[in-house]
Amino acid sequence: MIKPRTPPGVMELLPRDQIAFQRMLDTIRRTFEGFGFLPIETPVFELSDTLLTKSGGETERQVYFVQSTGALEKAAEGLPELALRFDLTVPLARYVAEHEHDLAFPFRRYQMQRVYRGERAQRGRFREFYQCDIDVIGKDSLSPRYDAEVPAVISAVFAALDIGEFTIQLNHRKLLRGYFEGQGIDDTRQMTVLREIDKLDKRGEDAVRATLTGEEFGLSDEVAERLLAFSRVRSTGHDDALAKLDALGAGTELFEEGRNELRELLGQLRALGVPESRYALNLSIARGLDYYTGMVYETILDAHPQIGSICSGGRYDNLASHYTRSKLPGVGISIGLTRLFWQLREAGLVATADSSVDVLVTLLDDASLPDALALSQRLRGSGLNVETQLEPRKLAKQMQYADRAGIRFVVIRGEDEIAKGVVAVKDLRRGEQFEVADDDLARTLLVEREQARSMP
Amino acid sequence: MIKPRTPPGVMELLPRDQIAFQRMLDTIRRTFEGFGFLPIETPVFELSDTLLTKSGGETERQVYFVQSTGALEKAAEGLPELALRFDLTVPLARYVAEHEHDLAFPFRRYQMQRVYRGERAQRGRFREFYQCDIDVIGKDSLSPRYDAEVPAVISAVFAALDIGEFTIQLNHRKLLRGYFEGQGIDDTRQMTVLREIDKLDKRGEDAVRATLTGEEFGLSDEVAERLLAFSRVRSTGHDDALAKLDALGAGTELFEEGRNELRELLGQLRALGVPESRYALNLSIARGLDYYTGMVYETILDAHPQIGSICSGGRYDNLASHYTRSKLPGVGISIGLTRLFWQLREAGLVATADSSVDVLVTLLDDASLPDALALSQRLRGSGLNVETQLEPRKLAKQMQYADRAGIRFVVIRGEDEIAKGVVAVKDLRRGEQFEVADDDLARTLLVEREQARSMP
């Protein structure tokens, strides 16, 4: 006998939590599709030499390799042939490069699959987790206009998920780098200074200021103060965002390019009807240091900033330089849904879902089985999810089961009901019992279900 | 530069095929939920000692092991800690045993995830493929009535998938073993004889007869002939199935038990309204030799029997004896969707889907961008999937793009249309263009879309 154990670092759910999780996945998918993104799926593993094109780095240390029994026995030298994907970006790059001639550009794709990282086992750290990504990939070029659709998608997704107010924080790498440039910090030092600024949240302003003015960076107090003031800029509302951009004063060409793109983006967000409470400038965000080259996005739950960014992304110059000579600029975002779900549950923000089963058709005696089966099937034909009690039990037991399972409607058709041509329905959510004519049953339950869904 | 390559033995789809595949997954899921099955997902890997409880065997030879970079460097002795699941049954057994006290029994679960087998690379053989499974697991016992729901689910799934007429073939291991018993073939030899009978399709009747009457088995010509006649039994229609069961004559207790369960099942199928053309006795099917103990199912596409069974399963005595002392009998089926999709495509039975995008909102000049964005967003609010042309191009180019992408509706709002308060719509499926009042646009397109979906 072996003790049954889930491997450490994965999130495995009981059915009612799985239903809640699945509904979030469905909502995200529906919203992605609403904005014209197309689905792709890639295999869980890639060829190791395809996946590991970059040299070393933290991510590579966390890769899981995959070996067939045969390869294991041969104890072959070198890297195993296959490795599990650690994100959806590298597989996307490989996919786009491999299928380049079969795709229409700009290529708008969404992908919602699990990824794998050999994280240290730790509460809230997952070795297997869902990412829900969208990206738009251009060939040779991609208009900055695509960058404005991205916050509109984020806004629609989290409004639909209904997990509280949120703010999409916006920044632009060109604005950031252009500002640094204007302060006399040249290209080569920008990255390292940015890296310090990126630590503001963790280290606090005083520590960062000390580093910036210290021996290594040698910035003047004045310049350090300006950088910190810049990174403190936050806006509240649409007009304030535009005013804050104006107030930054004149800058380098790069700076003005970034500022103009931000202004354009704000205009498009308004045209797209994104509520202005949902987006704001936050000039401290940088989103990694090498990859992003234009707009960057982070999303914060207003009431739970400690959760950190629940949806992040940005604009990059070239997706697939390791696989193709074509220049493929893009913009995209990622939602780490497993971690988000876990955090929402920890914070009590996601309730256990009702069952996906709408109706329990009860069975009072063996003779009624054919009737119960036929009734169940009729309800299914109307689009209801129905479980049939297949062995007679006391009615109280069947009610209790439905209640515990989160099934809302219990349908009873005993001799009395058959004689009257009606069905008795117990609505466990409302705690009401009512009778309804045979022919009206399906419609009545469907209407109730739709009402409940629109008013959760 | 690395040549971008999908690993061998996986099915990776272009977006429009992915949409077709996703619709099949959605249809299957909807049907499973219709019958009251609850979703679960398990991690892609299990602990190796949990997964590999059985000794050796073909499946085990095909297992993929998973190792973190660290473990690989240490070149640890023994089996790697993790292995990819090779089916959904072992993970289900582990899941039910692990969460036994949190589940309500009979536990009805569905699971639709990918599984992994180190198959020899070969056309139509996949190393990664979707399985779509349902199982009902009882605690201590499970009424045979659950066995009758299973063909009703199969019937509903394949009717909804709309891939042609099909027949669910039914047999019962107790009928089979009872019949053998009646022919004087004892328990110990039944398995090996069954294994020969199971080869009928591959080897042909003459070869099997020769083996059965040969030295190893030593059956008389008469007994061999009776076994072959038994395994030739097929029914057409409900009454014929009952008549064929009657015609088998009296048998052992085991035989009668199997026959009674088959009769009951046929009665329930009728009560569930399963069309009688969709099920038939086929007393030659055995579905593996050790695992199943009662009803067994195979499903054949009537016009494409060469594809083999597209959905199989049966009743088993004890799901999780490796993990728990609880007795957990069950019944279930599995659809290997990746292989099925591939085969349907090869046979020309699945068409490339239209895009998931319903509408392309065109853009004729930069000044109209805010209007195009607002219009797009309004349509999205009505539940339509909308792509916005973000950079102006010649209208003919935009039409051509929509046509190639499989987007049905192209929406145009130029100066003329704005002046008239209308929108011009090009319906690429019908090849028609029409005008519709601004306010009626969303409703008109939704109605058209619903009509197209109900009449494919």
UniProtKB/TrEMBL annotation, chains A, B:
GO CC annotation: cytoplasm
Please give the catalytic activity noted in the UniProt record. tRNA(His) + L-histidine + ATP = L-histidyl-tRNA(His) + AMP + diphosphate + H(+)
Binding locations of L-histidine: D87, L88, T89, R117, Q131, D135, R287, Y291, Y292
Is Ligase included in the keywords of this UniProt record?
yes
Q: Which GO terms describe its molecular function?
A: ATP binding; histidine-tRNA ligase activity
Q: Where is the Aminoacyl-transfer RNA synthetases class-II family profile domain?
A: 22-370
**PROSITE patterns, per this entry?**
AA_TRNA_LIGASE_II (PS50862)
Q: Please give the Gene3D superfamilies that the UniProt record associates with this protein.
A: Anticodon-binding domain, Bira Bifunctional Protein, Domain 2
Query: Which keywords appear in this protein's UniProt record, sorted alphabetically?
Result: Aminoacyl-tRNA synthetase, ATP-binding, Cytoplasm, Ligase, Nucleotide-binding, Protein biosynthesis
SUPFAM superfamilies according to UniProt: Class II aaRS ABD-related, Class II aaRS and biotin synthetases
- EC nos: 6.1.1.21
Q: Where is this protein found?
A: Cytoplasm
Enzyme class name: ligase
Q: Which GO terms describe its biological process?
A: histidyl-tRNA aminoacylation
- Organism's domain of life? Bacteria
> Would you identify the family this protein belongs to, as annotated?
Belongs to the class-II aminoacyl-tRNA synthetase family.
Assembly notes: Homodimer.
Q: Which NCBIfam families match?
A: hisS
The name this protein goes by in its record? Histidine--tRNA ligase
Species of provenance: Luteimonas terrae
Organism classification, top ranks? Bacteria, Pseudomonadati, Pseudomonadota, Gammaproteobacteria, Lysobacterales
